[in-house]
Amino acid sequence: MTDSMTFRPVWTRLAALALCATLGACSSVQGWVGRDTFKTYVPEVVQGNFVSKEQRQALRPGMPKAQVRDILGTPLITSLFRGERWDYAFSIRRQNVEPQQFKLTVWFQGDVLEKVESDDLPSEQEFVQRLEGERKPVKVPALEATPEQLKAYAAPEKSQSAAAVSEPLPAKYPPLEAAGR
Question: Model pTM greater than 0.85?
Answer without folding.
Answer: no
